[in-house]
């Protein structure tokens, strides 16, 4: 083998090894950086409000990363626990009644509360199913998140179709923060087995990260 092919072969090996290492290290480094940044952000918000006598950083020669985040989690959990009893519910209703009297604040509060209740409600089926719908024209398929059954005036106006109508959110690629909201007959949707998390990865990657899917033969044991 002459010198030129040897150098080309060596350069190819080095490039392939670099790309393999990058695939391994980049996601790990980004995950650690995002996690560390979130912990520092939470600590910077919570630690100033912790009394000095309860803050271990006042007695130790080093800082404790995540202590503020831990305090925030405990505080939020205690608020949720207290809000479930009679006195807590009364306090929450009183606070909400004050917010509802503020013209701009009440709109913002109601919207945010409704979003969090919809997303975090364990009984909700919002964005827990993925399907394919024909969009933007027949014969062209796109992935959408099935949020809920259509109710209210929209369901009444579409009642002449004689079919069950569901709400489908069509996010764009690669940043699924906006999109189209469609009202589609349930019979027109091809449901997928993939989870919402896998579908989100698929969309963000532009179709490069395809979820694994295997069919088990019916005669297999």
UniProtKB/TrEMBL annotation:
<feature type="transmembrane region" description="Helical">
    <location>
        <begin position="59"/>
        <end position="83"/>
    </location>
</feature>
<keyword id="KW-0472">Membrane</keyword>
<keyword id="KW-1133">Transmembrane helix</keyword>
<dbReference type="InterPro" id="IPR007462">
    <property type="entry name" value="COV1-like"/>
</dbReference>
<dbReference type="Pfam" id="PF04367">
    <property type="entry name" value="DUF502"/>
</dbReference>
<feature type="transmembrane region" description="Helical">
    <location>
        <begin position="21"/>
        <end position="39"/>
    </location>
</feature>
<protein>
    <submittedName>
        <fullName>Membrane protein</fullName>
    </submittedName>
</protein>
<keyword id="KW-0812">Transmembrane</keyword>
């Amino acid at each position: 083998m002459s010198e030129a092919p040897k150098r080309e072969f060596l350069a190819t090996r080095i490039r392939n090894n670099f790309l393999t290492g990058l695939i391994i290290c980049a996601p790990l480094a980004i995950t650690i950086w995002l996690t560390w940044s979130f912990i520092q952000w939470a600590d910077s918000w919570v630690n100033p409000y912790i009394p000095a006598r309860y803050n271990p950083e006042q007695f130790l020669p080093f800082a404790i990363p995540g202590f503020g985040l831990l305090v925030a989690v405990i505080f939020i959990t205690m608020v949720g626990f207290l809000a479930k009893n009679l006195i807590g519910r009364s306090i929450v209703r009183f606070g909400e009644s004050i917010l509802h009297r503020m013209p701009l604040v009440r709109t913002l509060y109601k919207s945010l509360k409704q979003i969090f209740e919809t997303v975090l409600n364990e009984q909700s089926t919002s964005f827990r199913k993925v399907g394919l719908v024909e969009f933007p024209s027949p014969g062209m398929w796109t992935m959408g998140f099935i949020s809920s059954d259509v109710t209210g005036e929209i369901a009444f106006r579409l009642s002449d179709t004689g079919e069950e109508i569901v709400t489908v959110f069509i996010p764009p690629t690669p940043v699924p923060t906006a999109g189209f909201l469609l009202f589609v007959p349930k019979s027109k949707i091809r449901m997928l087995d993939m989870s919402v998390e896998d579908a989100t990865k698929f969309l963000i990657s532009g179709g490069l990260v395809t979820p694994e899917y295997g069919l088990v033969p019916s005669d297999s044991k």
